[in-house]
Design a protein that fits this description.
There is one protein chain. With about 280 residues, this protein is mostly helical. Helix content is about 70%, strand content about 0%. It contains 14 helices and no strands. Belongs to the binding-protein-dependent transport system permease family. This is Carbohydrate ABC transporter permease. It is a multi-pass membrane protein.
């Protein structure tokens, strides 16, 4: 019988190489954010200096104040609108996608597989192809130029439905659903009391990804909200960068402030993302 004392020492070179590679990836990934912060704290002279400065300056509060006090850009309102739009889209996506995923995974109804194929096929269609038709539809409803037109198309996603369907198929045993039905539980009660607690890691992953995508969405909010008094943060940043003379310290100060909420969110929910991905990989 082999004891721990007789075992040969493990080769840790692979571990060190892995950590070195991950550190380099992290450095290159974080450098653009750091550079954005450096410019947002600098003066116009420091921005135009050659070689450029790599140490943050002391003008961030001044640059941020200029961003918030510009009459042409309603930056404070844009941040609030981005929180509102992203929050509503995330909540609706989690509810509708988990409900649809539960239906596709555990309910038996006619045309289920065909409908699932249609959902998957919609993933292959670029969003740009439907912008004109979507704009016409929103105009018919009377929502063009409002936040409702930005929120409505993102209330459910084909990716979310497919992801929830795959996760629920493996995370919730059919026997558990059948036993709940034998005890008299209705479909919504099965969904609420059995399915939702079992798919919390997947909901965390989908919620974070959805919030980030909704926050960073630019094209559709630009079409709907450009020139209005209530843009989203990405549209406000485009307004900051427009004009014959672009003040980069001001633009990057606004970009950094619009990025901080995402960084905080990812730092808080990073473990949930890894946990959800790993659980999905193990179950699959």
């Amino acid at each position: 019988m082999t004891t721990y004392a007789n075992r040969a020492p493990q080769d840790t070179r692979g571990t060190w190489v892995t950590y070195l590679g991950l550190s380099l990836v992290l450095l290159f990934s974080a450098f653009p954010v750091y550079w954005m912060f450096v410019i947002s704290t600098s003066t116009d002279e420091a921005v135009a200096a050659s070689p450029p400065a790599l140490i943050p300056g002391a003008q961030f509060l001044i640059n941020a104040q200029e961003v918030f006090t510009l009459n042409e850009v309603y930056f404070a309102a844009s941040l609030i609108n981005s929180v509102l739009v992203s929050g509503v889209i995330t909540a609706a996506t989690l509810f509708f996608c988990s409900l649809a995923g539960f239906a596709f995974a555990k309910l038996r109804f006619k045309g289920r597989n065909a409908l699932m194929v249609v959902v998957i096929l919609t993933l292959t269609v670029p969003n740009q192809l439907g912008i004109v038709a979507l704009y016409i539809v929103m105009g018919k409803i009377g929502w063009n130029g409002t936040l409702l037109a930005v929120i409505a198309p993102g209330l459910v996603s084909a990716f979310g439905v497919f992801y929830m369907r795959q996760f629920i198929s493996h995370a919730v045993p059919d026997e558990l659903v059948e036993s709940a039905r034998i005890d008299g539980a209705l479909t919504l009660r099965v969904y609420w009391n059995i399915v939702l607690p079992a798919i919390r890691p997947a909901l965390a992953v989908l919620g974070l990804l959805t919030f980030v995508m909704a926050w960073n969405d630019f094209q559709w909010p630009l079409i709907q909200l450009n020139g209005t008094d209530f843009p989203t943060s990405m549209v406000a940043l485009s307004d900051l960068a427009s004009g014959n003379y672009v003040i980069y310290r001001r633009v990057l100060a606004g970009a950094f402030m619009a990025t901080v909420p995402l960084i905080v969110l990812l730092l808080i929910g990073g473990r949930q993302i890894v946990r959800g991905i790993m659980e999905g990989a193990v179950k699959s």
